[in-house]
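Hello support,

Our group uses your service weekly, and this is the first time we've seen a run hang past the timeout. The protein is Large ribosomal subunit protein uL30. I'm not sure whether the cause is the sequence or the server load. Input pasted verbatim:
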Amino acid sequence: MEKKLKITLIKSVIGQSERQKATVRALGLRKLQHSVVKADTPEIRGMINKVAHLLKVEEI
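Update from on-call engineer: The timeout came from a worker crash unrelated to the input. Re-ran successfully.
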């Protein structure tokens, strides 16, 4: 069984660079407190690392 990650946007993207905004959108996050569940892959981990200061990540 593959591991899953619950990713929640906890800080606003206002004032962040366009690249960081695009990364948050690519993760599927739209509004504050919005959560998505993604598979734990190296690609997703890399995206999380780029915007870690805006997110809360939990393993499920």
